[in-house]
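Reproducibility note. Readers wishing to regenerate the assembly model reported in the main text can use the exact inputs given here. Chain order matters: entities are listed in the order in which they were concatenated for prediction.
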Amino acid sequence: MTRNGRAPSVKDVAAAAGVSLGTVSNVLNRPAVVSTATRERVERAMAELGFIRNESARQLRAGTSRALAYVMLDGGNPFFHDVAEGIETAAEDADLSLFVCNSNGRGDREAKHLDRLVQQRVQGILITPADPDAPHLAEIAQRGTPFVMVDRLSRAGDHCSVSVDDVLGGRIAVEHLIDRGHQRVAFVGGPSHIGQVRERLQGAREVWAEFGLPADDLINLPTEAMTVTEGRSAGERLAGLPSRRRPTAAFCANDLLALGLLQHAVTAGLRVPDDLAIVGFDDIDFAAAAAVPLTSVRQPRQELGRTAARLVLDEATNPDHVHEQATFVPALVARASTGLVRRS
Amino acid sequence: MTRNGRAPSVKDVAAAAGVSLGTVSNVLNRPAVVSTATRERVERAMAELGFIRNESARQLRAGTSRALAYVMLDGGNPFFHDVAEGIETAAEDADLSLFVCNSNGRGDREAKHLDRLVQQRVQGILITPADPDAPHLAEIAQRGTPFVMVDRLSRAGDHCSVSVDDVLGGRIAVEHLIDRGHQRVAFVGGPSHIGQVRERLQGAREVWAEFGLPADDLINLPTEAMTVTEGRSAGERLAGLPSRRRPTAAFCANDLLALGLLQHAVTAGLRVPDDLAIVGFDDIDFAAAAAVPLTSVRQPRQELGRTAARLVLDEATNPDHVHEQATFVPALVARASTGLVRRS
DNA sequence: TTGTATGCGTTATCAC
DNA sequence: GTGATAACGCATACAA
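Running the prediction on these inputs yields the following structure tokens for the assembly.
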């Protein structure tokens, strides 16, 4: 602290070094233009005073910050971390900071974060929203803040997005199960207003019909959320079904549900995959690390993040930017949880 | 965008509403002092122009930002999320933003984040550092930025910290195993320059000695990191031990290691806990959700975060602040992974 | 109740 | 090569 209780400024450095404020600025921004002697004197003064550039002042002057932001949907789901890692990588390359916020699925918290970020004048906002069609999102896109939706799609297409073909994801998951000989399969996921849940279910239903299987044998087990706890409770409901209705396999809308279901199955003495095969979605690291390694539909998580960052930066810097909806193709990763099917 | 391609400012609003800049500012900060008629006129102008306060300008003027920051050690470990949630709760209560950064265990990335945060003039920095004694941390504390170390302790005590009694944690974990009849136990953890690892091992050794068990029968299985993958590899080494040396139980320095070890054990056909009992540390949600629910040493994760935020806010606002090292007491949560021990 | 003036720290433009 | 000065957007002390 110098003078007034604030941190030392260029002014203080200038005084200490016996030069003008402009010269200090030159040392900072165009060192080549200042003589070695004075430069060193200024640098010494900066070191002695512990001078640190004030980013708000730079930002005020520059009119824009040097930061991106990502508003995560669920910090407790490792999937979003991996996405964030991808974003961070790209941000680092562009020499930008990344502010990571977490809405935890709460629309009000999301809105609060967004307000703050716009006030901060971040260069761009990446978000996996609780509701892709929420009005506060449309506002932001219209205001002109570069904006990319991550792992979601909105009805209005006036912004960039990166996502995965969820219908296809549902298809390959269930096709895998049909291949394995399953004729009665549960779909575990919800709430159904989540686009992903609907689309993964749709994909599941499509293949199911294409293989000529009766619609009744694809059983819907809705959940309140996409969490381990909800997966466990779905397991209980599944176990409670009359045995002639009980599925031999389950396709879960994400890996957390699958892990919960797996846990309940093991606890209940079911053998996985013999009594119950399980497919998850996302392929988070914990999926491979489960006691019975989980078959899952992989999304390119880091790639999703990197691409999203690329798009938002393009929108921020390229005057000829056009919005783009990048779609990735999911892939099945087969592991033990669907490995061996007892055909009876 | 108005005028110069920048977002509309108070000045623009003033012009549009036909009042002075000071009046606009009054509407923003002291609405009571301005007449209803002009206030409404100003508010209408703000709405029409899409005016949004510029946080950098406010911050520059105020001399300090309205944000805290938490630099996480490992975004892939849910433990740190829960800590972050606790911090966020407290930040919300104080009406502050929270910037969450992730060093991913890399000292260079940590330093970069810290640089940026200091430049941003955040009100306080919370951090779980890669190395508690790194010089860049001491610098920050000395510069006067409110600073709290989370879940770590440094040798120099010139700052606040919140942590858990790790020696005690090690003690209760191993005491539990001894209670269960185990006479040969592995300690899985590393690298040993992590204070936590050393202390948890120390606690383990203390009880081991107090029960008069031979030191050789507490086997150290060092790991390169605290990850699921490393836990799996520790499992392989454990399985490779000659059977008369092979432990009947393992105490892992965190839950990720424990989950990896558990997975390997199950894959290798070992029954848990009959052939191998496992105790983890942290009690992350995935511990309870494992196929064999994991006994673990619980840390009060959210509480840790809340307390850290409380301390940093006290340092930021209270002139009589004195540094405090808050220590929490860990507790054993017994689950199936140590549930049944076959005594032979 | 409203308007005017000043300064926060930085950068850039222009003289010298 | 260096110094003086203005501007970014906002908040406030003070004047009208």
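We highlight two features of this model. Chain B touches chain A through 50 residues (CB under 8 Å). The CA atoms of residues 282 and 298 of chain B lie 5 Å apart.
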